């Protein structure tokens, strides 16, 4: 590209657009790449992979605009190449997380892994779009418009990727863990049969019980999803520590459904027993894409006078 | 789905047939002790059935 020759003296408009777009893309990837309590990707190489891909995604999005302006329409095929690449990212994440999951004391479960993998793919598209818009505005209007668009887009990308959480669909409260013979209950929800007195004594001492009450019919379906419940158990264990070793299935955390009401009882043995931290951990569990459903909306039927009403009597 | 790996009982006459080995104990206390040892040995969860029989259950990998 000829514009690069005089870059330090009087940079070409296209070059500025590409540099700005790529920079915004990369910065948005850095912002989106949080190593949080899930501890993933926690290692330098995991980060490096995603930052490099973010850079590539940003560069592709930014380059597309000057290429199209120069009537190089074949450039658009590069975007499809990028899409292919990002699908590979999803596969890579899925495979890595599945391989790790077998050795977790409390596994994430396939639904959670699938959700994380989709997010990793999706974030690359966000980066590419952000770079595209910044590049577009700097070519059309001027570099300052690109900078302004970047400043506006960066916080917006974070909002875009923020999903809903368990607290949005359920009321969460503590419930006592009690034993009735060999049966362990959280509140009035039956959890598990624990045969040995020693295990029951340990559960009574270290166990915490929570009851999640769904806020509506859609929430009931989401909470009933086994993958969503496993995600709750995983997050709870990851944030608060897990009180078990392998080969101790009696101490496995449980999330059981009360069929009559749709409530979910959660029994977990955790290290950190601070009630506020426990509540925060459960509230912030992300809702899995695989678990979110809206049957109540789909089942609504039109009443004679044109009003929409729920068809289920529940 | 859980799979029964072993049964421990102090009331031998109430347990019949089946594919899992049955361990007889002299009294309920001995049965509980034996169930505890088997739980550790087999990495299985001991469940108490009918208040007197211990069933060692291997849960599927999904619900380890």
Overview of this protein structure:
The complex is a heterodimer of chains A (314) and B (64). Chain A has 314 residues and is an alpha+beta fold. In chain A, 55% of the residues lie in helices and 13% in strands. In chain A, the strands form three sheets. Chain A has a four-stranded antiparallel β-sheet with strand order 1-5-7-6. A three-stranded antiparallel β-sheet of chain A has the order 2-3-4, with helices on one face. In chain A, α1 runs antiparallel to α4, α1 runs parallel beside α5 and α2 runs antiparallel to α3. Chain A is elongated, with a radius of gyration of 25 Å. The C terminus of chain A is likely disordered. With 64 residues, chain B is an alpha+beta fold. Chain B has one domain. In chain B, strands 2-1-4-3 form a four-stranded mixed β-sheet, covered by helices on one side. The chains are: A alpha+beta (314), B alpha+beta (64). At the A-B interface, α7 of A face α1, β3 and β4 of B.
> What's the N-to-C terminus distance of chain B?
11 Å
Please indicate the percent range of residues of chain B in DSSP E strands (runs of 2 or more). Answer: 25-35%
Mean pLDDT of chain B comes to 87
The succession of helices and strands of chain B, N to C, reads: EEHEE
- Integer count of domains of chain A: 2
- What does the average pLDDT of chain A come to? 85
Number of strands of chain B: 4
Number of domains of chain B: 1
User: Which geometry of chain A do the CA atoms define?
Assistant: elongated
What is the CA-based Rg of chain B, rounded?
11 Å
Secondary-structure element order of chain A, N to C? HHHHHHEEEEHEHHEEHHEE
């Amino acid at each position: 590209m000829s514009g690069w020759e005089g870059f330090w003296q009087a940079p070409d408009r296209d070059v500025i657009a590409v540099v700005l777009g790529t920079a915004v893309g990369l910065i948005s990837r850095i912002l989106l790449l949080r190593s949080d309590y899930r501890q993933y990707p926690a290692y330098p190489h995991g980060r490096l992979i995603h930052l490099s891909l973010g850079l590539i995604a940003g560069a592709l999005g930014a380059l597309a605009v000057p290429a199209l302006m120069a009537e190089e329409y074949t450039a658009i095929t590069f975007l499809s190449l990028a899409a292919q690449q990002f699908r590979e990212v999803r596969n890579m994440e899925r495979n890595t997380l599945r391989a790790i999951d077998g050795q977790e004391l409390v596994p994430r479960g396939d639904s959670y892994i699938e959700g994380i993998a989709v997010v990793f793919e999706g974030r690359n598209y966000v980066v590419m779009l952000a770079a595209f818009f910044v590049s577009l505005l700097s070519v059309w209007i001027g570099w300052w418009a690109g900078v302004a668009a970047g400043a506006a887009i960066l916080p917006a990308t974070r909002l875009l990727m923020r999903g809903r959480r368990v607290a949005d669909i359920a009321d969460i409260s503590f419930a006592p863990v009690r034993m009735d013979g060999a049966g362990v209950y959280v509140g009035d929800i039956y959890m598990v049969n624990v045969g040995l007195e020693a295990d029951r004594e340990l559960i009574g001492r270290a166990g915490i019980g929570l009851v999640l009450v769904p806020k509506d019919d859609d929430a009931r379906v989401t909470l009933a999803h086994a993958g969503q419940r496993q995600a709750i158990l995983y997050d709870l264990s990851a944030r608060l520590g897990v009180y078990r070793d392998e080969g101790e299935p009696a101490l496995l955390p449980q999330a059981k459904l009360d069929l009559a009401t749709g409530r979910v009882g959660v029994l977990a043995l955790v290290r950190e027993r601070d009630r506020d931290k426990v509540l925060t951990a459960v509230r912030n569990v992300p809702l899995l894409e695989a678990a979110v459903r809206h049957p109540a909306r789909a089942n609504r039927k039109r009443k004679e006078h044109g009003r929409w009403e729920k068809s289920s009597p529940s | 789905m859980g799979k029964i790996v072993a049964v421990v009982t102090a009331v031998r006459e109430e347990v019949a047939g089946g594919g899992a080995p049955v361990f007889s104990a002299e009294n309920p206390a001995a049965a509980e002790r034996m169930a505890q040892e088997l739980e550790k040995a087999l990495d299985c969860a001991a469940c108490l059935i009918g208040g007197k029989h211990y069933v060692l259950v291997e849960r599927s990998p999904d619900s380890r």
